[in-house]
Amino acid sequence: MLSTKDYVISKLISSDDYISGESLSLDLGISRAAINTAVKSLRQDGYDIESVTNRGYRLNNHPDLLTKGEVLAHLSEERMSTITVLSEVDSTNKLLKEMAYNGAPEGSVVVSDCQTAGRGRLGRSFSSPKSKGIYLSYLLRPTTSPEIISKITCWAAVAVKNAINRVCNISPSIKWVNDLLINDKKICGILTELTIESEIGSINSVVIGIGINVNHDTSDFPEEIRDIASSIRKEMNQDKLINRAQLTATLIDELDKLCNSFPNANNEYLKQYKEACSTVGLEVSVVSAHTHESEKPRLGTAIGIGDDFSLQVMFEDGHTENLSSGEVSVRRR
Ligand code: BTN
User: Which terminal residue of the chain has fewer beta carbons within 10 Å of its beta carbon, N or C?
Assistant: First the structure.
């Protein structure tokens, strides 16, 4: 449900000029008094809203808040009806999986300003501090077989890359299989989880979970990942905060494109994936998802991306293998 505050702030963000209280009131079908109350409350949230007699309200500056009203400024009201924006949740993937179980439609989105138990791949946690990143899950209900799951994750990496490029004017590379990097530092991770209909073995739902480090400073990351993780803002070397709501809306737009073209546009996504993948050409160390810690990783060189998004690796003894994401993870050596 959208509140008066959500409507008012979305209108103010979308307008460069003054908007009169009267036109806001008519446009939104809300009383002038309710508009005044919303403006007061928005000012308390940190919005710098100027008001001039006979001209109306104008937004001069706004804090980087990830709220429904902020996202509404960039998407239609109809699209917002299946988007849940939260200030805190344990895991957006966990919540969206529950919503999917209860019948949420394809295209449903959960996005949160922070996560208290963000989940990463291979059972790891995903650091999700407040007011810094975008933690978003998107629901698909594809009617194809479960093998396509790794393909969806690679398509999602392309969608995130394109969204970041559209908003920040920088194009991250993709580390096979689905980490996004800028200057070789991880700025985004993707965790795709699927639910299978046990009786017939077909897919019930696919939840694509995306965590983007947007405005983090070094101190926002746990010490153990400070060498490998970074944020878009940090790698762009800029003080100004990146507008997370705009990036969220653009990401949803790219994921809607993905959803509407899956699996038909495979050639286009594969082409873009190959162009962006920075793992090819590197010496890699391959670790099986089921390998015991004491077992040695296998060493090789990544030589290409297969048409099924697998990573082609030539091992030190000269033989090659096409690795699929479920089986292995690769590290640069
Ligand atoms: C990884 O790099 O290991 C994948 C990280 C995926 C994190 C995202 S944040 C939104 C969604 N909710 C979660 O609990 N995890 C994913």
Answer: N
Residue with tokens 């999700």: 128
User: Is the CB of residue 10 below 6 angstroms from any atom belonging to ligand 1?
Assistant: no
> One digit per residue, pLDDT tens: the chain, 333 residues?
889 999 999 999 999 899 999 999 999 899 999 999 999 999 999 999 999 999 999 999 889 999 999 999 999 999 999 999 999 999 999 999 999 999 999 999 999 999 999 999 988 999 999 999 999 999 999 887 777 777 999 999 999 999 999 999 999 999 999 999 999 999 999 999 988 876 677 778 999 999 999 999 999 999 999 999 999 999 999 999 999 999 999 999 999 999 999 989 999 999 999 999 999 999 999 887 666 666 788 899 999 999 999 999 999 999 999 998 766 677 777
Q: How far is the CA of 133 from the centre of ligand 1 (A)?
A: 11
Burial class (CB in 10 A: 0-12, 13-18, 19+), 223: exposed
Sign of dihedral through CA atoms 100, 102, 104, 110? negative
**Closest atom, ligand 1, to C-alpha of 120:** 3
**Which residue's C-alpha comes closest to atom 11 of ligand 1?**
209
CA distance 154 to 177: 7
| CB 135 near ligand 1, within 6 Å | yes
